[in-house]
Amino acid sequence: MIASNRGPVTFRADGSGSLTPVHGAGGLVSSLGPMIEGTGATWVAAAMSDADRRAAALGTVDTDGYHYRCLAMDPETYRLAYDVVSNATLWFLHHRLFDLARTPAIDRQWREAWDAYRRVNRRFAEAVMEEAGEGATVLLQDYHLALVGTWLRRERPDLRAVHFTHTPFCEPSDLRVLPDDVAAELLTGMADNGACGFHTARWAEGFARCCDAVLGRRPPIFVAPLAPDGESLAEVARSPGCVEARRHVLDQVGGRRIVLRVDRLELSKNLLRGFLAFEELLRRRPDWLGRVVFVCLAYPSRENLAEYQAYRRDVEDLAGRINGQWGSGDWTPILLETEDDYVRSVAALQCYDVLLVNPVRDGLNLVAKEGPLVNANDGVLALSREAGVWDELAGLALELNPFDVAGMADVLESALDMPPGERRAHASAVREAAARRTPRDWLDDQLAAAGALR
Amino acid sequence: MIASNRGPVTFRADGSGSLTPVHGAGGLVSSLGPMIEGTGATWVAAAMSDADRRAAALGTVDTDGYHYRCLAMDPETYRLAYDVVSNATLWFLHHRLFDLARTPAIDRQWREAWDAYRRVNRRFAEAVMEEAGEGATVLLQDYHLALVGTWLRRERPDLRAVHFTHTPFCEPSDLRVLPDDVAAELLTGMADNGACGFHTARWAEGFARCCDAVLGRRPPIFVAPLAPDGESLAEVARSPGCVEARRHVLDQVGGRRIVLRVDRLELSKNLLRGFLAFEELLRRRPDWLGRVVFVCLAYPSRENLAEYQAYRRDVEDLAGRINGQWGSGDWTPILLETEDDYVRSVAALQCYDVLLVNPVRDGLNLVAKEGPLVNANDGVLALSREAGVWDELAGLALELNPFDVAGMADVLESALDMPPGERRAHASAVREAAARRTPRDWLDDQLAAAGALR
Question: Does A5 score more than 80 pLDDT?
Fold first, then answer.
């Protein structure tokens, strides 16, 4: 069994009101979905839309050789759990995004949201227990479902439950922002699983230290980095739509060199300092004026949260300011595209000269593996040391300190100046490392962690 | 010898242009100043004003039985070192005040400021070396002077140099925001002293872990909490000016209970959540409406920095909003006073029912010891567990998690509801703990650490 916040499909209602399942989006779902088809597994997830809620009322749906159980929840309860706790608290905590002079403020409303988070987790736990056969393996995905393990352990000790975290994990000094009872409930919920998995040793160690500090016990912990599905990427890259999109991107940049980034429009992704580093490159190196374009594909995310609205404005303003100051009649230094288009993203990844992946903190960052896998231009990967994927690519990718604008400009300079032979060797070494694991390896690591429980 | 950013005196020019020394302000200076008088020591500090710079041109000044060497520096160099590096970077780093999606941005200008910081530290090192006799003990104070030790070690290995940090110290995971060369230079500058001191074990451990992670070596480290001078506080409290100020405070609150805070208007002090917790108290407990006043003495600080200007606006707006929403004709719930007045602060400390000390992070917090020492009302101390002084008062003061607005309201409620007998016992236990150490103990700990170097 799988349980995750977002499901592998989402439902769409046509004019006559009948419901059609369509494949969902998101890194987890697109990696895990294809592997679950035909396995007879059951997947539990939250309803995201009215159509999902209608589908949920029908009970478990059989689709593509597995069972899908969509959970309809009271929209306000779900909103409090998802927006206030999962996204504005736990995400911020693990990514160190709080502006601690002001946030978080754990007030009465926050306590109500925590209670909603608990109820959403309880709802997942009940659905899992209803669906799970004796001794079943249950793979709980991510920080939205941190409390489920406690009920499974108490009420269904026959199950083999594993929790996998896709974000970073905080340190004990960060965790102190939460009330003690909340921190303990959260860690207990995770530690009550048979094992807890993370994308990299650094996050696993943070979790272990938090458990030591707060609980005085640790569950078994494993490290299993996710990887993209190279074959399905290659298939998209070969598709006529992608060929067309690539032609369009190349038209837009008009033969200039391409610095690319592909991200959600997300505070942890560090778009602002990326622009500033690019501007510093232009300031230092007038020889690049008019000869390089920063293609920034940044897809809006969590638009309910005021922090994300403000960040989006800042990103658009800064790109506009830099384009106004440095651009010329026929050259726009930064092409900022905010309309989500997966095929265009793959097309752009095929063409980059430099791929900039500079998050301030990131659970893994799949783009840093996807780019090298599909790039056909001996492109250079400039990678933040604060991304989980750094461990797998250290010594191969060019290292970025994401807070160091001047240092990132140095790296962009070296990347653009790199001679062709060196680029080829770099790209091939990074590609090889990025191809070392598959989504199947990641799934197998979780199943092995579950299997080892007996 | 002592070296610190601010000196024990500052100079004032009268109408005829002649210079008069007046005693400086600030926790360090008011604690250390009186102990240095008559010792024949030399104190090196930076010029703060034009009059200081004129005094600096005269060389070392003999005053109150010690020598004072004031250093005039190029104002722009000093501004870059003080505002950009010391206050907007190192202070934010150690207090965890960065909004990491945006700050810090280590750009070209920041690198220039780092170079200025290095030059200011070099200037201090040169003055110390000029003034110091063979084998002299040198007590370097605080984060403004983190690099001095390296030059002393290299050029004057005969000196016994100790560095004392008055702020918290960050963890290795925080330190990663700095470029590697900067982090290494900073830690080396401190580790090149004979010993490094901190107000509490938690900051000492943070520093030790940073040294291990970056340098692979540690200097001797000691813990020596500062304490207020109880006698001089008592003297101020007895003074006619203070008696008058106390009468004025009591008039203002008109017989109501007093929740008090006394702080610089500083991001780490957590004024906003303090107001929100007080508002939550009013919301929960209508019986306190009109019967309690939150006296907030908050003295402007670092008004050059945009972050502090914005914070001050937010503090004033929130106090105004709460007063508008909850106040009545004859009752203003929050009395926010922003004009610096030391005697009034002492007067208010004598009268509080509850002293709220809720920083998000604080090197020590002297007010949490000063209050209990002078309070004559069996007042209750509500103290953040993130203040360095927490270690000395844990189990005695009421514990606050400064991020937990609802939890702080709980504590304010208990404090106001505490029966007289319990208040008396609480106040007396806290007073005893606060009186356990004197400024002399703190100085002796530094001298002992220096003495142990041979």
Answer: yes
A301 and A216 belong to one structural domain: no
% of chain B surpassing 90 pLDDT: 89
Counting the structural domains of chain B, the total is 2
Q: What gap in Å lies between CA A409 and CA A394, rounded to an integer?
A: 19
Helices (H), A80-229: 91-95, 108-131, 148-155, 172-175, 180-191, 201-214
Q: Is residue A440 pLDDT above 80, yes or no? A: yes
A82 with A100, same domain? yes
Chain A nearest-CA distance from B360, in A, is 7
Pair A25, A4: CB distance under 8 Å: no
The verdict on B136 and B109 lying in the same domain is yes
Nearest CA in chain B to A268: B101
* B177 and B313 fall within a common domain: no
Written as six digits, the tokens of B384 are: 């953040």
| Closest partner CB to A101 (pick from B102, B173, B267) | B267
d(CA A175, CA A404): 26
A272: which chain B residues are within 8 Å (Cβ-Cβ)? 101-102, 105
User: Of the candidates A421, A417, A376, A371, which has an alpha carbon nearest to the alpha carbon of residue A397?
Assistant: A371
Residue A26 in this model has a pLDDT that exceeds 70:
no
Residue that has been written with the tokens 């779900």 in this structure? A78
Tell me the C-alpha distance between B106 and B175, whole Å: 13
List of residues 6+ apart from B82 with CB closer than 8 A: B5, B46, B120, B144
pLDDT beyond 60 at A31: yes
The CATH code of the domain that includes A132 is 3.40.50.2000
Residue B142, domain member (yes or no): yes
Residue A28 pLDDT grade (very low, low, confident, very high; cuts 50, 70, 90): confident
- Are A214 and A255 part of one and the same domain? no
Measured between beta carbons, which residues in chain B are less than 8 angstroms from residue A322? none
Task: Give the whole-angstrom CA distance, residue A399 versus residue A357.
Answer: 10
Contact B179 A276 (CB under 8 A): no
Domain membership of residue A53 (yes or no) is no
A431/A433 Cα distance (integer angstroms): 5
Contact A105 B171 (CB under 8 A): no
- According to the model, what pLDDT value does residue B453 have? 62
* Tokens of residue B427, six digits: 């106040």
Main-chain phi, psi angles of A14, to 5 degrees: -90, -175
B171 in contact with A, Cβ within 8 Å = yes
Give me the residue label for tokens 């990696």. Answer: A31
Distance from CA of A180 to the nearest CA of B (A): 9
Write the pLDDT tens digit of every residue in B401-447: 999 999 999 999 999 999 999 999 999 999 999 999 999 999 999 99
Residue B317 lies in a domain: yes
Give yes or no for a contact between B246 and B347, defined as CB atoms under 8 angstroms apart. yes
DSSP string, A81-97: IIIIIIIIIIHHHHHT-
The phi and psi torsions of A126 (rounded to 5 degrees) equal -65, -45
Q: Is the pLDDT of residue B454 over 60?
A: no
pLDDT of residue B433: 98
Buried-exposed string A245-259: b where 16+ CB fall within 10 A, e elsewhere: bbeebbeebeebbbb
Domain assignment present for residue B428? The answer is: yes
Mean pLDDT of B153-168: 98
Task: Identify the domain containing residue A413 by its residue range.
Answer: 230-434
User: Strands across the sheet with B354-357, in order?
Assistant: B334-337, B292-299, B257-264, B354-357, B380-384, B398-400
- Which segments of B193-321 are extended strands (E)? 195-198, 221-223, 257-264, 292-299
A155 shares its domain with A290? no
Helix, strand or coil for residue B435?
coil
Window 327-366 of B: residues touching A by CB (8 A cutoff) are 360-361
> Which chain B residue's Cα is nearest to A175?
B403
